[in-house]
UniProtKB/TrEMBL annotation:
Transmembrane segments: none annotated. Keywords: Hydrolase, Metal-binding. One of its GO terms (molecular function) is hydrolase activity. InterPro entries: Fumarylacetoacetase-like_C, Fumarylacetoacetase_C_sf, RraA/RraA-like, RraA/RraA-like_sf. Residues 27-227 form the Fumarylacetoacetase-like C-terminal domain. It holds the Pfam family FAA_hydrolase. This is Fumarylacetoacetate hydrolase family protein.
Amino acid sequence: MDAAPPSSTEAPSDPRFAALLGRPGKIIAIHLSYASRADQRGRRPQHPSYFFKPSSSVAASGSTIERPAGTELLAFEGEIALVIGAPARRVPLAAAWSHVAAVTAANDFGLYDLRANDKGSNVRSKGRDGYTPIGPALIDARAVDPTALHLRTWRNGELVQDDTSAGMIFPLAQLVADLSQHFTLEPGDVILTGTPSGSSVAVPGDVIEVEVSVDGGPTTGRLVTSVVQSEDGFDPELGSLPAADDLQRTEAWGSPEAVPVVERGSAATETERAEDASGVSSRFARSTTEAGGSAAAESALSTALRAKLEAAPVAGLSAQLRKRGLNNVHIDGVSPLRPAAQNGAPLNGAAKLVGTARTLRFVPNREDLFASHGGGYNAQKRAFDAVGEGEVLVIEARGETGSGTLGDVLAIRAHARGAAGIVTDGGVRDAAAVAAVGIPVYSTGVHPAVLGRKHVPWDADIAVACGGATVLPGDVVVGDADGVIVIPRAIAEEVADAALAQEDEDAWIAARVAEGHPVDGLFPMNAEWRARFDADRAGEESR
């Protein structure tokens, strides 16, 4: 049965559906259908799989789409849309195309920040109002070869997607026939047929255009959508909140290499985006800690506090933290990287380490995950590009020493960025070269192997577990020959002052012991010795 051709007299009064035969009863979208997209994702499906989008998500050409507050990964996907013209139920492949009335352009927008919440159904990530622009004009399906449709997408005038239906894994007619095996396709229903490579992230201010055409023949015209920022976000008491990780960023942007260094989410400005594209800006925006504390940039140490921490020994700081009930703040098993001596002097020794934490997490190697996360501009490289002046990059490697977690190139990058040091509960490769860089590095040992032997670089600027200690971005990290300790930023000054006061007292006690006094009653001081100590200090202050 041939589908009825598109007719302008059938256009509905609702402007959202002006390019269609009416309000669609169903919108069915395919997850992955183009060979170029499958190759980009590193997986090719054996059969098509689908999800539904509500008709309330339809928008007309010239509309705006909102990126909600608190999200960063609004992705566009230019697609060919099929409009069903005649009922289709269990139709054979040979007859399937005759049930299609028209072809048009569509943009299957989605928020990758919400994608994991629905595990493939895309209810929240792709079902929002305005997230399915369609139009602006229909092409009569009877007048076209379904294998010769040309799909193109532009972002801000730049062509970013350019493919044809001949590049699809599953032909258009197959999608119609397959879906008709499971339910009746009714007139007005829309099938979104997937997107080729080139799909990426749009930010407020972007204009996305999609066109479907037959080379030398009819065209839908350009479907135009402008991206704006919404002030509305999500209520944590009602449901799950948006979240972005390296996997979602990679898939939203299209590849690990495409993910920009700066990931500012809803706070991004057009100036910042331009900087990202040109490579001028090389910093991540600071992520807030999982405990709701300040971001790392907001907890930078003052010059005075840094000087106090540099003067205070780790052992003294540890004692003060214990007095405050904090016993699990030691990064166990790490020590300063000590290379072979040059001219009898160690290159790095036990250089004092003081800074605020930036974090990087590795997960155990799994071949498929390393394929998706290990190459390109992965989390490890982004973390070393992002660490800033006075910061310590703390790496969670699960105490696994059978592989290096950094080498000389990354150490040079951190040093060039002004980082205060690196702490890893994994190994270091190129150890002598890393030590020669001059940046303090604390590790569990050395190993010549690269990441892929034991680790997958996973994510950054989150809470990590390093050497048995939990480290949040913005925590204060201090290291010396006794080891490395983590201090909550809110009490760092108090702890440093107390540790220095105790050091002064301990030095006075040591001098008395050196004079021949027994330690009993002196260490710790009894009332008599305390009075002598206070008198000495008062005398010094009066001079």
